[in-house]
Amino acid sequence: MKLSLRNRFLLPTVIMVLVGFCTSSLVSYLSASSALERTASREIAQIATLSAKMLDWWIKDRQNDLANWSAQKLYGTALQESFMGKAARKEANETLQALAHDYKYYESINLCKADGVIVASSRYDDVKDINLADRPYFSEAIKGTINTSEVVLSRTTGQPTFIIAAPVKQRDEIIGVLAGVVDLAYFNKTMIESLELGQTGYAYIYDQKGRFISHPDKSWLLKVNVNDFDYGRDMMTMGSGAIIYEQNGVEKTVAFQKVDGLGWTVGVGVGTDELLTAAKRVGWVNLIVAVVCIGVVGAIIFFIATRIAARLKDIADGLSDGATQVSHAAAQMATASQQLAEGSSEQASSLEESSASLEQMAAMTRQNADSAQQADSLMRETNQYVAGANTAMNELTTAMGEISAASESTSKIIKTIDEIAFQTNLLALNAAVEAARAGEAGAGFAVVADEVRNLAMRAAEAAKTTADLIEGTVQKVKDGTALVDRTAKNFGQVSENTNKVGELVGEIAAASKEQSQGIDQVNQAISQMDKLTQSNAANAEESAASSEQMNAQAESMKDFVAELAALILGAAEDQPRAQAAAPKPAQQPSAAASRRVGPATLLQHKPQAAKPAAKSIAAKSSATVKPTNPATPAKAVGQPRPEDVIPFDDEKDFQDF
Fold first, then answer.
1. pTM, full prediction
2. Higher pLDDT residue, 578 or 289?
């Protein structure tokens, strides 16, 4: 399928822009996805590590609380069975109640003797009958070690709790234990559940046995074990690290960090798809930008190509209409001239039988004069045609100038795009510098700034490539303009030569007229009759020859117009135009008038043969001369070849237009 000129401009450019933007968007999406996934993995790992450290610090702070409180003299006195000891227990109860009230994360604080009996507590009435001697944490504390118990569900609140026990000493002798029941829900609420991990992410804690002691689903607390899951067993084996697993059809990324000393582990998990949400958003933004840019570029190219094609189409339509009219007129003129030539030939044949050699010479002289007169008339018409051609060439030169101006405007637009890309590159560099100043917190922004810089550099390279293509197009347009200027100069030279030929034909006509007047004095009657006959024959012959050439020129012009229309509109739209433009002659002309004339003979003007004919008559005034056959036009002598004026053999220069 043959494409139109507009589509030849539009399709390659749109395809090139589409491929460039699609490639850029894909690379951007893949790079952003990889970078964001790595960044998110590092962030959740940092969150897990920080949460584990905070839990460790918080437990140590509670241990320090119990260690400091157990060193107070009041509690040592309250553990004694003396009168002073029993009196101090009331004050100890009040003090422990105040501490539990001030420190909300303590469910209760209990003071026990060495045999495990509770003598004072922040909730003494609830725990006075409980003996802690068989509890592991009590046994370790009575030996002099501050230790932490396993997590258990509180019978009072139903929340996970653990006990921190510290020995109470008096003169370096352990006389009892101060045990604080710590509500783990307080830490979970303030430190774990407050973490913002997107829509699906959450944090949790499991102990050294794998039991969940903190989880968003409260039904899991101390009832679900991480060892029940394949990924949980891997986590227990690894201790600390990060894994990716699939649960209920959803892929999740988990980072987990073990707390030193306790054996507890803090885990932070989030859906992998959620990690890539920002990358998907970048992909959609790139897609929207690509579609908008392709639409804008396509619209600009479509507008420019349509303007150029419309201008060339108008010129082609004008040329086609003119060629059709000239072809019809030439066909009619050829038919009439042929009929007139045949009648004149018959009349001249009857006169030849009775005419003397003087009459024949007079007929030839008058024929030369009339031929010169007709040649002069035709030369004037030819001057008009040449003037019209010069006008058309000027219009074509103007159109080429407009095309060049449009191409230069497009080049300026590409330069603007390149400047925008340069400014974007500078902004990306500034963003990278600011990200570097921000340190670790700006690492993610530095990656994005680097990618924006890469995009700006690629946009600049694409703009430079497009500018080079447009500069090539502008250069070709300038070359075409120069070619049109040279053609216009050649047409001017043809017009000048035509004027000179007209002057020579005028001089020949004047000389022939003087000879005719001399011969008229010898034999006026025969010369008058012969003059009329030869004049009619000469007019018919020249009219037929001129009509033949005009018809051939019109046919050739129609071929050129058809090729131009095919280039502008494409083959599918040009075939109906070529068929509609073909003329239908009213009558079949003779073989001489209807033969097709190629481009090499379009500019041959046969009446120029009158000049050597006049010399022949002057040299052979006493000889018998046969009349010229009207059906056989004289051959042009000394006529310049049309290829020397307009080179038609350089078709390769126009194949890529």
1. 0.43
2. 289
